[in-house]
Structures are given as structure tokens and as C-alpha cells.
Amino acid sequence: MGYLRRTILLFVSFLFGAAAFILSVAQVSAQSTGKPDFQGYCASCHGINATGGKGSEIPDPGPDLTHLSKKNGGTFPFEQVYDVIDGRKLAAAHQRLLDMPLWGVYFQPQGGPDSASEAKVKSRITDLVRYIESLQKN
Question: Whole domain around residue 62: which residue ranges?
């Protein structure tokens, strides 16, 4: 009986360790790809730390993105942020109220969308959203 218990405990420990490793790799991936995209495409309007583009030279600076979770009852609105960044769904419904580029279109290659390029666009936007999620303040 002791052997079985130790085996189960070892297996459960392994599962928790594997899950923690996978989550840390996903976070590092989002940081390594999301951060450069944020700095290259978003920081000029939203600020380098996502705290808003106040004081920038652009006519209509972007809002502070570090309090999105707080404004949403403590839960980060992942899908909403994704849709706003992508822009294609909102633009198609004529609900686009933001003066912001349609990054879903911009990130597509010049030849137009195909399944492989669409997967890359989705992955890139997902990493960008995860990076913004990592910047949330309490």
C-alpha cells in the first residue's frame, strides 16, 4: 500500500510540475513576442508602460491599458481586448469607435490571408493580449 501511495504522490507532483512549467513557458513566450509588438505598434499611443499616451504628440492619445481588469470586476477581458486589437470583427459590424489600426489586417502578409498566415496573426495578437494582461495593476 505504501508503494502505491508514493507512486500516486509522485505522479501528481509530476503533473503539477509539468503544468507549472507549461504556464511559465507560455508567459515567457507572451512576454518575448507580445512585448516587442507592444513597443513597436502600441506604445506610441498607449505609452511604453501602457499607462496611456498622455503628453504624447499625437492628437488623440490612447487610454491607460493597465486597469482593464480592475474596470472589469477583477477579470481581464481577454476576448474583448483581442477583438479590439484585431479590429476586423468590430469594423465589419460598423461598431469600431476607436481611432486605432486594424492590426488583424495589418499583421497579414501582402499576398492576403490564408490558413497558415491567419494562424500566425491569431498567435501574434494572442501574445500581445497576454502581454497587456501581464501589465494589469490591482
Answer: 2-134
Comparing CA positions, the residue from 129, 45, 127 lying closest to residue 80 is 129
d(CA 65, CA 80): 13
Q: CA 37 → CA 3, 10, 11, 98, 107, distances in Å?
A: 51, 40, 39, 19, 11
Predicted confidence (pLDDT) per residue in 7-66, tens digit: 665 655 555 555 555 555 444 444 567 999 999 999 988 999 999 877 666 777 788 999
- The DSSP annotation for 5-23 comes to HHHHHHHHHHHHHHHHHHH
CATH number where 92 lies: 1.10.760
Report the domain count for the chain: 1
User: 82 CB contacts (<8 Å, ≥6 apart)?
Assistant: 125, 126, 129
How many CB atoms lie under 10 A from the CB of residue 27? Answer: 15
Q: Which three cell numbers stand for residue 21?
A: 512549467
